[in-house]
Amino acid sequence: GKLGRYPPWPGKIVNPPKDLKKPRGKKCFFVKFFGTEDHAWIKVEQLKPYHAHKEEMIKINKGKRFQQAVDAVEEFLRKTKGKDQASSHNSSEEKNRRNSSEERGKQSAGEEKRKASLSEGKLKKGTGEGKKRVSSVSSERGSKSPLKRAQDQSPRKRGRPPKDEKDLTIPESSTVKRVMTGTVAGFKWPPSVSEPVKDSDPHFHHFLLSQTEKPAVCYQAITKKLKVCEEETGSTSIQAADSTAVNGSITPTDKKIGFLGLGLMGSGIVSNLLKMGHTVTVWNRTAEKCDLFIQEGARLGRTPAEVVSTCDITFACVSDPKAAKDLVLGPSGVLQGIRPGKCYVDMSTVDADTVTELAQVIVSRGGRFLEAPVSGNQQLSNDGMLVILAAGDRGLYEDCSSCFQAMGKTSFFLGEVGNAAKMMLIVNMVQGSFMATIAEGLTLAQVTGQSQQTLLDILNQGQLASIFLDQKCQNILQGNFKPDFYLKYIQKDLRLAIALGDSVNHPTPMAAAANEVYKRAKALDQSDNDMSAVYRAYIH
């Protein structure tokens, strides 16, 4: 239960709130962790100078949020160094004050060793602290709010960062004295981190995955302008885009965008494309769904073929393989609008065979094709926080950059067509199976006389804690099954994932069992409810 069991985490020493007392009998500092909203009293022996230990840091912890925190440290140091240089002409009084009463964020090992020995009493309160909170989400480790966690005097549960990267505070105090890390485990930071492009969305990350001859793969972060880093054969490295420039903005592409399919996911995507200044033409099978977006500035397309012929890049997001094929191959379909240079991006979650067939017919007409299924739900779509899994035409992926930044928080390029479909089905297989397990546990608790709310509270305090777990349990406890992700679609994804396993003779017994429960829920008329309505399949 001690902090030392958790991975090291970069932070900075700050003044504690006035009403927060220092723990007795412990020589410790009040630390704000980079990339999170966590605070904690940390024992002095658990603090290590950042620069002196930077190179031995991250071998074990390669998590994206951790790397974002390190990026935040580097950005903070760049800003601090810039301020130091800008203020080098200050008066001798200021110089004396700095030398006598403040620790400075300098980068020599000697300075770090000196600073590590300074007492808390020499810290002076910083200004401009706690700059901008991008957004706030309830704690995934239970019902404690970040404030309550900061006021708790025990550091046990605060050594870990929250799992949600939306819960992000970038402190920017000009008088912070020392950047440090918690208990150090050995690891190494990637040799080069690309500088952020000024007009890119600071909270959006691109990743390129390239298969090598060896099993290892290479992820590289790229900025909005998508300057691809050279990759080392057989190496594995992750570079997270800088997430500290909170004033970044998206420059929309000047290409004309088309969008086909305004369902739970498509509606949020189109709304965000419009908000970010894209020119969008929309089409939906039931035309009345287009009305709202016409009011928001979208243009109306009469048929899929018309949308494709009048737009440079056309996205589609429909329900299943049959709908995806009909949209392309049917009367007045996408294919009829394709001519050399036209671009088609299919965001539907389908099987690899379907998407490969569609890619072939599009390319045969001189078009360019990208598959880009998304991981998320209606809420994440509305918030522009989807995870995009792309594969196919790499140049088209780059051309879609501003669109992906508008609709998502992260984009992965996975290579050749079919890879994204397979990966998406695996992701949703895991999610669907987990949802069924949650429902099974809640119903077993009920029939054995246990409190379902207490079960949720226990889970929220353990390692399974997540936004997904909490939201789906709340749906069940409240009897609210308004769709955030249709039950019929998660069952479809399970079915396709099982077929994927069949195609390579790989067993998927967990997914198969979960699929049967969803099929029962569909028989109980739960298809158009949220996936959490699988709970009703367990009620006798």
Automatic annotation (TrEMBL):
- Which named protein is this? Cytokine-like nuclear factor N-PAC
Matching entries from SUPFAM superfamilies are given as: 6-phosphogluconate dehydrogenase C-terminal domain-like, NAD(P)-binding Rossmann-fold domains, Tudor/PWWP/MBT
Q: What is its main location?
A: nucleus
Q: Write out the GO MF terms.
A: DNA binding; NAD binding; NADP binding; nucleosome binding
Give the species.
Nothoprocta pentlandii
Q: List the Pfam families.
A: NAD_binding_11, NAD_binding_2, PWWP
Indicate the segments forming the PWWP domain, all copies: 1-53
**Comp. bias regions, Basic and acidic residues:** 79-132, 149-169
Chain's gene name? Glyr1
Task: Provide the family line.
Answer: Belongs to the HIBADH-related family. NP60 subfamily.
Task: Output the Gene Ontology cellular-component terms.
Answer: chromatin
